[in-house]
Design brief:
Number of strands: 4
Mean pLDDT: 96
Radius of gyration: 12 Å
Largest sheet: 4 strands, mixed
Strand content: 25-35%
Low-confidence stretches: none
Number of helices: 3
Order of helices and strands: EHEHEEH
């Protein structure tokens, strides 16, 4: 199972820019779980994935982190990483 975890915060400008792009990416995958994690509310996940800045997107496959993006990346970068994780 592939899970894409987006760590963000309401006060984060780049996070607000990522939100609509993330929703577009999400629509292309029915076999991938997407999670939105607010770093101000879910401290346990922040610590578990060692998130120190936002936005951070972590791709997890079968419970193991296989890719990470820190900062805002392009839509194609996320799509390519997700496609690679599904192989």
């Amino acid at each position: 199972m592939v899970t894409v975890k987006k760590f963000s915060a309401a006060w984060c400008g780049p996070c607000r820019m990522l939100a609509p792009m993330f929703e577009q990416v999400k629509m292309g995958y029915s076999n991938v779980k997407f999670e939105n994690i607010d770093i101000d509310e879910d401290y346990q996940s922040v610590q578990q994935y060692n998130v120190s800045s936002v936005p951070t997107v972590v791709i997890v496959k079968d419970g193991v982190e296989i890719n990470r993006f820190t900062g805002l990346s392009s839509k194609i970068a996320y799509v390519n990483a997700i496609n690679e994780s599904l192989k």
